[in-house]
Write a structure and sequence with these properties.
With 515 residues, this protein is α/β, with parallel strands linked by helices. It contains 19 helices and 18 strands. A hairpin with a 5-residue loop joins strand 9 and strand 10. The longest helix is centred in the last third of the chain and has 26 residues, at 489-514. The protein is globular, with a radius of gyration of 23 Å. The termini are far apart.
Length: 515
């Protein structure tokens, strides 16, 4: 069966400091698995096919589309496709993804349409109805997608007993199957199918999530899947359940060696939700890298837990090529941490961060302001924690504003208090977590403007203290802003904002010349 897997264009926000541009790892895994089953697979990566093209998105002012236009993408779908699969990951990009689904449906009306990913898993009825999909794959995709392809190959289209899917019945009602058991042996999966897309375009762009050197050849990786924790604001539990699976450290290094030989990769960006949970796993992995891959670098840009990271671990991280670590305490208020079930101990975060600093690592914090339960004393505790970490020597901070993601417990809580319509307006607001200007508050005690000021103040206080204590960091940031070199997350964020501003100025200049 001929399968086409589509990564939609990227939807970026003009005033956001964090746009995600990276090769589609989930699609690469699905393609490899489908090929192992004997299917013919074509990957249409709408971002990688036109990586440097960023144009205004007509759907909403202040948003930009990266990659192919929707019409170009629809035209590139092979007319003989039997199955068309869409990655539907991000809620803020749903309006764009929906329009692409409709265009492709018109271009290839005879194909069977499937969607998967975090947004599709959280909102299957919306994706089926509005996107015109025949089926939604829920959660982890390989096994379910493989079973769907096998049934389609046999002419079977009855999904009532199929685990891991959602569809509409003849009466127009949503039918959701039981969840597919999580894959127990991750090392049994084939390596991602990077051969079917232009990985070199991403390597040459140096715009991965984690900072890498100007000559680095980066590639995304996964060493684990899922997260054993149950933070109420995170979509992980809905997508992956709370089952946490790890690969064998030696097998992960085997894959790294493979990509080093195949693509000359020398920087590995691990996109794991929770990369470090057990000390024995991370120490074994670091020792494997030291012994078998000297000289490479690797990143964990999504962030990790602090519990397993002490001085022994941080020394090993540095020795193995991981020079930066990001912690995500999210709040400095013990009351809020308990309310959102974060299960983090701030004193442990501080101790781990100090160990990382002593080992020479760059340390970053992820924080959130605007949780619905947050009151003044909670905000004060968070600001005290931020200032304390800056004085300790932590290098960077990313302060996000809370947004309720579909499929999370906190979304349900906010929805009960004030019903949320998951319409286009809401989807665009979901991008507000990393915006600097246009911000929406979901805390009844905080106005939009107050929340925006709090966010900017938190970052300003942190960097004022950090740069006052470490003037060379400020000089390094200015140098990176001029040269474009990205050694830190801050460098990457500033380079991104600089590029967005440059594009906006060029468009305005071009428009004025046309008058």
């Amino acid at each position: 069966m001929k399968v086409v897997l589509i990564q939609p264009p990227g939807l970026q926000v003009q005033d956001s400091y964090s746009s995600i541009t990276q090769p589609p790892l989930g699609i690469a895994y699905l393609s490899a698995y489908a090929k192992r089953l004997g299917h013919s697979v074509v990957i249409l990566d709408c971002v990688g096919a036109a990586l440097s093209r960023v144009e205004p998105w007509p759907g909403r002012e202040g948003f930009m589309a990266q990659g192919l236009s929707l019409d170009e993408a629809a035209c590139r779908v092979p007319k003989d496709a039997g199955v068309v699969g869409f990655s539907c990951m991000f809620t803020h990009a749903w309006p764009m993804t929906r329009e692409l689904m409709r265009k492709v449906r018109r271009a290839v009306p005879g194909a069977f349409f499937v969607a998967g990913g975090e947004h599709a898993t959280a909102m299957p009825e919306q994706v089926l109805r509005d996107g015109g999909m025949d089926l939604v794959v829920l959660g982890e995709g390989e096994i379910t997608f493989g079973e769907v392809l096998e049934k389609l190959s046999l002419g079977i289209r009855d999904w009532r007993t199929q685990a891991g899917v959602a569809c509409m019945d003849a009466a127009g009602s949503l039918v959701r199957g039981a969840r597919q058991p999580r894959i127990a042996e991750l090392d049994s999966l084939p390596y991602p199918d990077w051969e079917s897309m232009d990985l070199k375009a991403y390597m040459d762009s140096h715009i991965f999530m984690g900072p890498s050197g100007s000559e680095s050849r980066s590639i995304p990786m996964l060493a684990t899947r899922g997260c054993p924790y149950n933070c109420t604001f995170c979509a992980s539990a809905n997508m992956w359940t709370r089952v946490y699976r790890t690969r064998e450290p030696s097998k992960v290094v085997d894959e790294m060696l493979h990509w080093k030989e195949r693509f000359k990769a020398d920087d590995f960006q691990f996109q794991d939700l929770t990369a470090i949970v057990k000390k024995d796993w991370i120490t074994a992995f670091c020792r494997e890298v030291v012994a078998r891959l000297p000289g490479i670098t690797w990143q964990i840009p999504v962030g990790t837990r602090a519990e397993a990271i002490d001085r022994e671990v941080t020394d090993l991280l540095v020795a193995s090529g991981c020079g930066a670590v990001t912690y995500a305490p999210e709040s400095g208020s013990e009351r809020i941490l308990k309310a959102v079930e974060k299960r983090v101990h701030l004193d442990r975060v501080e101790a781990s961060a100090r160990a990382a600093l002593d080992s020479g690592m760059q340390v970053c914090l992820f924080m959130i302001v605007g949780f619905p339960q947050e009151e003044e004393e909670d905000l004060e505790a968070t600001f005290r924690f931020i200032r304390r970490m800056a004085r300790m020597g932590v290098h960077e901070i990313a302060v996000s504003t809370f947004v309720p993601f579909p499929g999370t417990a906190l979304f349900a809580e906010v929805d009960r208090a004030s019903p949320i319509a998951v319409d286009d307006d809401y989807c665009y607001w979901v991008a507000g977590a990393t915006r600097l200007v246009a911000i929406k508050s979901f805390n009844p005690r905080l106005s939009d403007e107050r929340l925006r000021r709090l966010k900017l103040s938190a970052m300003a206080q942190f960097y004022a203290i950090s740069y006052a204590a470490h003037p060379t960091r400020f000089a390094g940031m200015l140098k990176a802003l001029v040269t474009g070199e990205q050694k830190t997350k801050t460098d990457r964020a500033l380079a991104e904002l600089k590029a967005k501003l440059g594009r906006k100025v060029r468009r305005l200049f071009h428009a004025e010349n046309l008058l």
